[in-house]
Amino acid sequence: MTHPAVRLVGLRETPLDVEEVLGSLDDDASGGLVLFVGRVRDHDGGKGVTGLDYSAHPTALDRLTAVCERVAEEHDVHGLAAVHRVGTLDIGDAAVVVATVSSHRGAAFEASRALIDTLKAEVPIWKHQRFGDGTEEWVGSP
Q1: Per the confidence metrics, is the pTM higher than 0.90?
Q2: Could you tell me if 98 and 108 are in contact, meaning their C-beta atoms sit under 8 angstroms apart?
């Protein structure tokens, strides 16, 4: 991580800790902190979801770091953090946590939106969903 605003980037097989993310962004100069937590929901596409697994390509952490660096360069933030789960998750588990801090709320909101949207579009992490009817689906895989 070379941009000083990039404070925390990770892929975790263990439950995500919102307090870890918030702690990494402690900054007295920041008036706005925007936090997004993506959770495993119990439905998708009209089907009941019973659980899922996230798999990451070996380059996923490098790609996630690059996304964080780019968002830090493009937005007026003092700090940002992004962590994503891999492995088996249950309904309600946190799958991804991103946050940004800035002097003002507007910049923090814009940067957080850019961070989660770019992460989902560019980082090679794939979701394997299991449905209540016995079917399954891979999401985001090539």
Answers
A1: yes
A2: no
Q: Where are the alpha helices (DSSP H) in 1-142?
A: 18-24, 60-74, 105-122
Reduce the DSSP state of residue 119 to 3 states and report it.
helix
Q: Which residue from 17, 136, 4, 2 is spatially nearest to 85, judged by alpha carbons?
A: 17
How many C-beta atoms surround the C-beta of residue 26 within 10 A? Answer: 11
Phi then psi for 51, rounded to 5 degrees? Answer: 170, 175
Average pLDDT over residues 108-134: 96
Domains detected in the chain = 6-135 (3.90.1170.40)
Q: With CA atoms as reference, report the closest residue to 89 among 49, 125, 53.
A: 53
Taking a C-beta distance cutoff of 8 angstroms, is the pair 135, 75 a contact? Answer: no
**Cβ atoms 115, 71 nearer than 8 A:** yes
What does each C-alpha distance from 130 to 43, 56, 141, 142 come to in angstroms?
10, 18, 15, 19
Q: Which residues contact 42 (CB under 8 A, 6 or more apart)?
A: 48, 49, 91
Res 93: pLDDT: 97
Q: Which residues pair with 80 in a beta bridge?
A: 6, 100
